[in-house]
Amino acid sequence: MLPSFSFIDKDLAPDRLANLKLYKYNAIDRSFLSRYLLRHYWDWAHQWFPSSMAPNLITLTGFLFIIVNVVLASCITPSLEYGAEGIHRWVYLCYAAGIWLYSTFDNVDGRQARKTKTSSPLGELFDHGCDALNTMFSAILQASAIGSGHSHATLLLCIAEALGFYLSTQEEYHTGVLYLGYVNAPTEGILLAVFVFTLSGIYGSSVWMVSVGQIIPFMPSFIANMSFSHGWIALISAFSLMVHCPSSLYTIRKACLDEDKSFLSTLIREDSPILIYCVAIYAWCTSPYSFILSRQHLIPFTLAIGIVFGHMASKIILAHVTKSTFPKPSILLVPLVGGALAANCPRVSELFAFTPQSEMLYIWGFMMISTSVYLYWVATVINAFCSYLDIHCFTIREKDSNKTQ
Q1: What is the rounded distance in angstroms from the CA atom of residue 280 to the CA atom of residue 298?
Q2: Which residue from 86, 167, 291, 312 puts its CA 20 to 30 A from 255's CA?
């Protein structure tokens, strides 16, 4: 039986908030780049941040670089396609700088928390919440840089990245440990993104329109005839769906066996939200009666579903730090599923059909409602955590640095 939807979480009840006192951050990072190279850079970068700057403020500042880049993509490359290279190349270099700074700030915030002795469960929730939003927002930047446009390939990129992040978060919920493998998105994934953005900034996004067969000989025809932009998306999606996701599911299965739980029941109960999410996105955008791809509405649509995904993933982390049951599906899935049903309604009935204008209005309404609900939820959670732990979210008080939450 599928779980019901929820809006305000029972995870904020006093008995759940009491579990915040038991919080202990656990993470394993197997990346050789992180352990032997980048950690020295992050240590160096950390020294430039004043001790008075709160860790969550560092996280938020880093995330603002992503927001600025999304605004640039929306205003300067709204088609997400290659062309007018002399004008657009500097934008791709901005993407590279923005994602690098985001990663830097994301790794500095933990060092700042340890230095100022202000580590708290709010920090993990805030950090992972920004990461969840970045997962979908960065897909817009990648599509812009490689010129994949408003296409099924870009849609596949969004779905694959969302599914991978969701299962990683679900894995952390069951194991209590954030596990980053030898090759992981926060390290190698960021470096690859910087490489892609920089390459487009130097040579233009048209470099990704070359077919694979022109550069790499002796490839099967279905690969040789593929552009590098679609090949890149296929590679990322294949790694997520065929390597990362099975690895997370295997770990979740082991955790279920250790807890004497049914793995199948756990999958049905906990993964139904992400399946609904992915199916709704695909059904809506690929419907012959939808204009999202043909009229280039994918950017506002991705922003809307990005907010939905941010809410879904953050609710799992909230349940993790409060030691609560796995969260119910986000209420924000309702307008997403509603849009998917409306876009496919003409298949069975002529009573209703989207026009380009009405669908665009629905998407913008969907985005504004989702953003409002999400921000209200975020404010509610932050207020509850700060009140219970007696801390501030974006500032450091002297008494906060003298204790560890």
Answers
A1: 14
A2: 312
Taking phi first (over 0 means left), then psi (-120 to 50 degrees means alpha), and beta for anything else, what does residue 117 get? left
Helix or strand holding residue 180 (H, E): strand 178-180
Cβ neighbors of 203 (< 8 A, separation 6 or more) are none
pLDDT at residue number 399: 61
Residue 280: alpha-carbon gap to chain centroid = 17
State the CB neighbour count (10 A cutoff) for residue 330.
27
* 262 burial type by CB count under 10 A (0-12 exposed, 13-18 middle, 19+ buried): exposed
Residue 330 three-state SS: strand
- 216 SS3 class: coil
Question: What's 30's DSSP letter?
Answer: -
Residue 91 exposure: Cα atoms within 13 Å on the Cβ side: 29
Tokens representing 376 are 């209200």
- Give percent above pLDDT 70 in the chain: 95
- In 3D space, the residue among 145, 44, 49 whose CA is nearest the CA of residue 93 turns out to be 145
Query: pLDDT band at residue 87, thresholds of 50, 70 and 90?
Result: low
3-state secondary structure of 211: strand
Mean of the pLDDT values across residues 66-74? 96
CA distance 301 to 95: 20
The model's pTM is: 0.93
- 197 phi/psi in degrees, rounded to 5: -65, -40
Stated as kind and residue range, the H or E segment containing 40 is helix 39-46
| 217 Cβ contact list (under 8 Å, min separation 6) | none
Q: Is the pLDDT of residue 321 over 70?
A: yes
Of residues 128, 230, 244, 297, which has the active-site annotation?
Answer: 128
The angle at the Cα of 204, spanning 200 to 206, to the nearest 5 degrees, equals 105
Question: Is 227 strand, coil or helix?
Answer: strand
CB 123 within 8 A of CB 178: no
For residue 107, how many C-alpha atoms fall within 13 Å in the half-sphere facing its CB? Answer: 21
From 56, 158, 150, select the one nearest 108 (Cα to Cα).
Answer: 56
| Cβ-proximal residues to 250 (8 Å cutoff; 6+ apart), any chain | none
The answer to whether 341 touches 359, Cβ cutoff 8 Å, is: no
